[in-house]
Amino acid sequence: MPYINLVKKTKKKIFITGAAGFIGSNVLEYLFKKYKNFYFTVLDALTYAGNLKNFIPEMMNDRRFRFVYGDVTNSTMVDNLIADSDIVIHFAAETHVTRSIHDNRRFFETDVLGTQSVANAVYHHKRKVERFIHISTCEVYGRGLTRKMGESHPLNPHSPYAAAKVGADRLVYSYCVTYDIPAIILRPFNIYGPRQHLEKAIPRFITSALLNEPLTVHGTGRNKRDYMHVSDVSRAIELLIHAPIKKVKGQVFNIGSGKASSIYSIAKAVAKHMKIPLSRIIFVKDRPGQVSSFSCDYSKIKKLLGREPKKDLKSGLLETIQWYRDNQEVWHPQTWLRRVPIILPDGSIEYH
Ligand SMILES: NC(=O)c1ccc[n+]([C@@H]2O[C@H](COP(=O)([O-])OP(=O)(O)OC[C@H]3O[C@@H](n4cnc5c(N)ncnc54)[C@H](O)[C@@H]3O)[C@@H](O)[C@H]2O)c1
After folding, report:
1. Which of 85, 149, 204, 225 keeps 20 to 30 A from 287, CA to CA?
2. Is the pLDDT of residue 194 over 90?
């Protein structure tokens, strides 16, 4: 990474939204440990998905870290915080596809209007903010029209969550075109690793195994996802912090493993690594709007910045299983949130 040594010595103020959640807290910890001249301000509303335990104790007691409790849709607060920031990384969102099928108003408020307040503040403080990394998602693509999805794949969101994220993604793009803000849009595919909320598939399988419960798979389990370990998101964001701004400004980048695995094969791998019988895997009704396959074409970021994922699925899964074994006190209070109601097309409610 040729640019890194340059920036490592420079004092930078980083503003991160949503870093009490899964990906944000991992990226924050990675940057905090590696860049001693970086100062971090985190804004998080501590929704059911945010957890102060996601901040490591050495960070809580360090003057390089500041936590602000607040909502990203509060544009005055966001503007004040961004006024003093060099780099903005925006993770805060409502993130659960299934939950958005039941009750989605908050998704549009946080994901779209929250992004609007961040983008407005970046525009307002354009002279100070050198780059704004907006975290979008592969869900914006919907059903794959090609085997792998590149950045120019059409955006056909299948769920209200995905639609809200399209709104945010295109809002940021429009601010690049209209107001020339220094934004970069990152579209991670499916991410897993320590601290992920139990409502998501991999932690749900792992914790079901630990709790001696069945591992429930939606539909036939043949739906495929492109799973990448969260440490590879941290490394990709690090690259984007260091890349010459001219190369990345206004650009969209996919990141993922490039490999699609069926949900059933993931459940089987978890069962195998945790030494439980496959008969513990059971099938439940499919979720409406399900996307059959996500597979990432990450050639754009590879060509431009030489980025490739490092951690393979087996070692990533083993490490993640170990984390859930060792940190029951962190995740156990979330167990009641694993069952999520959804509204079916006929208006009836079902628990997933
Ligand atoms: N997890 C994945 O597989 C994945 C994949 C692609 C993209 N993403 C995107 O990455 C980002 C982070 O995802 P995650 O899985 O870490 O999410 P998460 O649900 O674990 O965390 C979201 C965080 O945002 C905070 N938050 C929610 N609403 C807020 C508000 N109104 N104001 C301030 N803070 C608020 C929550 O308290 C929480 O700390 C999201 O933008 C998501 O769309 C996630």
Report:
1. 149
2. yes
